[in-house]
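User: For a benchmark we're assembling, each entry needs the component sequences followed by a predicted structure for the full assembly. Here are entry 17's components. Please fill in the structure.
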Amino acid sequence: MQKRQQDFFSDVYEVARLIPKGRVSSYGAIAKYLGVVSGARMVGYAMNAAHQQVPPVPAHRVVNRNGLLTGKHHFGAEDEMQKRLEMEGICVEKDQVVDFKKLFWDPSIDLAL
DNA sequence: GAGGTGACTGCGA
DNA sequence: CTCGCAGCCACCT
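Assistant: Structure for entry 17:
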């Protein structure tokens, strides 16, 4: 089967939507959950298209391993991502999620059981 | 068909 | 602790 990345993308979108409100996740965590090793970049790339997917994927809840809003530029407005995170109740400072470690949400935690 | 880039991560100095 | 490099895979030119 020509397993198109579309499946991979769909999985990423699905997991991203599963992220609880007020929580954030990382590319590596999602990639790992999907069983993709070192696929963090692919996750990020998927997020690039997620912006066009419907329903829109909360890509703003997905940040890099450092909790840094690396992809804020892809939202069209840099403040958009931060604003959305704040709307979720997440404090963002200098493009970085406050208490990221505490707000960090791992798909395996909620989906593993 | 080949080369270059990228919303990442981990390890080494 | 901070900085730099290499690996990874799909998409774009």
